[in-house]
Every structure is written in structure tokens, then in C-alpha cells.
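Researcher: Sequence of Aspartate-semialdehyde dehydrogenase follows. Predict its structure.
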Amino acid sequence: MSDRLKVGILGGTGMVGQRFISLLDNHPWFEVTVIAASPRSAGKTYAEAVGDRWKMTTPMPEAVKNIVVMNVNEVEKVAAGVDFVFSAVDMTKDEIKKIEEEYAKTETPVVSNNSAHRWTPDVPMVVPEINPEHMKVIDFQKKRLGTTRGFIAVKPNCSIQSYAPVLTAWKEFEPYEVVATTYQAISGAGKNFKDWPEMEGNIIPYIGGEEEKSEKEPLRIWGEIKDGEIVPAVSPVITCQCIRVPVLNGHTAAVFVKLKKKATKEQLIEKLINFKGEPQELELPSAPKQFIQYLKEDNRPQVTADVDYEKGMGVSVGRLREDNVYDWKFVGLSHNTVRGAAGGAVLCAELLKAQGYITKK
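Model: Prediction complete. C-alpha cells:
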């Protein structure tokens, strides 16, 4: 019998679900044993349910092709076959909140890629290198849910991964005002160019709800636990514009920042390249060896050259220079469906296992 934890993927046929399947192929700690999706996919093998809609550049793993897809709404039945689940369901926010709590109440931990629970006060929203201590709020959540091992944890929005780690690395210089424009890939909408031909040679200067998430979610990550809830930080003030661009994978951010404390360019770069957190110290399987790389070339980072840095789990930064209105400006790049979505959730699950929150049933 395998020592690996049994994992279910909720919403396993969609783009993020497919990314989970790809990343978990031959994972040393986790094994996909259950895939659940909408009733129209239930009863088919995974290969049949996905059909010609496989969106990854790598082939569908052999280990999942013949898994019979279950109905995601049959919560007790799905939960019975797994130790925990990843959630990437495509539902309304209220439906997601309800079904993720239903899974948690079966004593099944839920690690979610969805945004529905990101502002539930006792649900941790974690970038493992930045705020691993927020997982402690799970103990308060379990009391509310009436569970002993079931809970929900979430990862934040994909777009903030290209600049929130940078601002965290510079924390001692006290960033207090930030302007960020993100140039976001179409896979962030769960699509590729075949699905969305009107995106070729086009940009759309609006992504619903994205700017609010990009401005507010970093503050929750930098917050602290008080009275069993996560209280967001109040600084820095962030304002964002989010633009959809004709790129398949990779969110780029152009960022301007004001610092309360003076810093040299050399100091700022040194903080970036030496920044690490618990995933690096614990040597978690999905953790990048070096979380942030700094590129000195004027034309970097670029999506084609840098999006897969550290297998898509690292952040690339370049073009750091002084600004004549703000103090500093830089360009950041992160992989939106790896670090920003499924990979970030897998790393959260690895951290939760290391912290003792996810165990065998």
C-alpha cells in the first residue's frame, strides 16, 4: 500500500484542474485517486470526460486516464475515497462556499484555488514563503465548523504573485504606496488561443473583479491573527490596473513603489535574491530553491524566457531603477497557473502536511 496521501481533485476537467493533475503526476507525497466534476462528466473515464479539451503542453498522465470521474455534488461519496481535496470547481461564489464547507465537514481538508473563501475571516489565504503562520487560524475555523480534521485553506489571486513577494522582501524598508499594472495571460481565464481567437493581437483593459483582488489581497496576506480571525494590514496602499494580453501563460507586473526608509539598488536586489521562507527551509517537494531571481538585462523578465523559472514556481524580477515620481520601479513575472494557481495550492498542501494539518484519514 502506498504511503502517499490520497488526493481528490474537485473540478478536475477544467484548466486549473488539469494543471493539478499534471503537477501531481509522480508527486512524492500525494497521489490522485479521485477526480470529481460536473454531473455531465460523471461516469466517464477522465480521458473521455476531457476529450480534446486537454490544455496542458505535456500529455495527460497515464495514471489518471482511466479514473472514472465522480459527481462533485456527491460529497460524502467523493470524500470517502481521499485524505484531502484540491478545489478548482467552476461554480458561483455562493455555491463554492457551500460545497467547500460541505467537504470540510466530512473531515476532509480542502485546499482551494477558488476565491470564494479568501475573505472568510478564519480561512487562511497563504503564499507559503510569506505567511505560513496564518495556517494557525485553522484551529479556530475547526471550532466553528465542528470538525476535528476538516478545514478550508486557500491560495491568493494569481496576479499578486508577481509583486507581493517583492514587497515582502523589502518589508524592512517599509513600502507605503504602490502602483501596479498587471499584464495577464489568457490562461488566467481558463482559456487558450483556440478557445479565444479574438485575443490574438488584442488586449482587453478590463478583467472583472481583478483590480480589487490585486489591491486588497496582499494586505490580508500581510495581516495578523487576532481573536481567531485574520485582520488585514493597512499598509502599503496599493492601486492596480489589470489588463488581459495575448500571452498564454505568465502574468507580468509593472510596479512603482514608495519606501519610508532609504535603500540602495544593491540592497534591494540583495533582499530579493536572498529572500526565502519555510518552504525552502523545509525543502518541500514543490518549493523553488530560489524563490525570486533578479535579471540584470534591460529586456528581462520576458514570458518566453522566464515564465518557467523554477518549474514555474519562482518569481522573476528585472528593470529595478529609481523613479522621478516614486522611489523605485520594477517589472515582475510569475506563472499564473503554476505558482499563481495549482502549483501554489500544491505548495500550500505540502506546508499543511509538514505542519501536521493534513494527515491520512
